[in-house]
Design a protein that fits this description.
With 493 residues, this protein is mostly helical. It folds into 3 domains: 219 residues, Fumarate Reductase Cytochrome B subunit (Up-down Bundle), CATH 1.20.950; 136 residues, Fumarate Reductase Iron-sulfur Protein, Chain B, domain 2; 71 residues, no CATH class. α7 packs antiparallel against α10 and α13 packs across α16. The longest helix is centred in the first third of the chain and has 32 residues.
Length: 493
Amino acid sequence: MSPVGISLLMALAFAGFGVLAWRKLGIVVALQPEPRRDEPWRRLRSVLVDGLLQRRMVRGEWRAGLMHAVIFLGFLSLLLRKLQLIAIGYDESFAFPDAFGGPFAAFKDGVELAVTGAVLYALWRRLVVKPARLEPNREALLVLGLILAIILTDFAFDALRFARLADAVPGVAHERDFAFVGGALATAVQGVSPPAASAAYHGVYWVQMAVVFGFLVLLPWGEHFHIVTALPTLYFRRGRPANRVPGVDLDRLMEASDEVDMKAGVRTARDLTWKDALDAFTCTECGRCKTACPTHLTGKPLSLKGVHDRLKHHLVEQREAIVAGDPLGDMPPLVGPVIGEDTLWACTTCGFCETACPIELEHLDEFYRLRQQRVMIEGAFPHELKKVFEAYESQGNAWGLPARERGDWASGLDVPVVRSADDAAALDVLFYVGSAMSYDPRGQKIARAFVRVLQAAGVRFGILGDAEGSTGECAASATRCCSSSSPARSSRR
């Protein structure tokens, strides 16, 4: 072998990987901060269970999940084999100590056979079964082909190495006794002439190492970058209910002196958080979000995969502007060129796509913030919401019913109405009813039943009646559930 050759190959590969990986990770680092370091043990558990053990992957669709789990765990377990091959590049006779080397040779052959079966199944799914959620993907076929090439050349290298060195190197002979695939192939090539065997031996080694390190350089280019980023992404997942709407600093918004400061939510890629970008670059494009999304299943232009795919290409295109960090620099808005109005408002924020995603990628927070910018700053929203917003302005509820009737649902129930701070101090509970239970007939039934429960329990409670205001919960529900298939219309007010 050649110590110089393997050193040069590794240097080029690691340099190429570092440059290409930083092309994306530099964007992640430059975007808006967001704390994601709470509850480290719970986060580590998610990495172990859903990352290393692939629980969500297998549970979501067991055949495809098991296939992916075998390839992933095989990838991890064979990293030691690649270190062994690197060591062989420096010392041809290198072998692990017998107590480990023999069992590892058998384990390696078993893992490589399992991965071969998983890769063949993956190719069969993509080329024959062709499930709707998997679009044609040349990169996926290339990566599967590279994995298969690595395994086949590894079997061939073992066969030629055993035939060449087993008689002279005891450690190699010990490995041959355990390597049931490599050992059998070594017997088959035993009669090859020494010059041909030597040429094949060196050729297979360098082909395999070139494929291995070429695969390393390929990773940062496309969706298979998730091999590097999936576990960190799982660690930094949201870890809270998906339907919590991010807050807006209204005081700062009202004090803004120019359009640069007049911000709410997200307008351009520069306003995204680092986790938004990490999720986009980590998407495996498995398509499970598409089969889980009720909006996508009705033919509307929405999928978590599609959003992340468009976003990651946009982030790379705008890399220089993002890394420069100039807040006054001109950048295109996300809504329109990157995420269509139809896509933004088609999402019902049910969270099924995030639940289906095997690595818990997120997009709901991002969509909430995009909608905040469109509604609060640009006054652009689907026409279906116009009446809702007007009703809130005039009467403080989504129905537009008189505000003075807010407490009428409690008529005949003998419910105390709080009129002062002293009234409130005498209570155990102040029952905030909300607009839905105050005006909606079905909601009123819930409120009346809850009142009877409180009364039966002897709880001292009261309501604010017509003095109660709205938290905007119905407006939030309306914007979450508005799934218009027509373009949003602007209504600056």
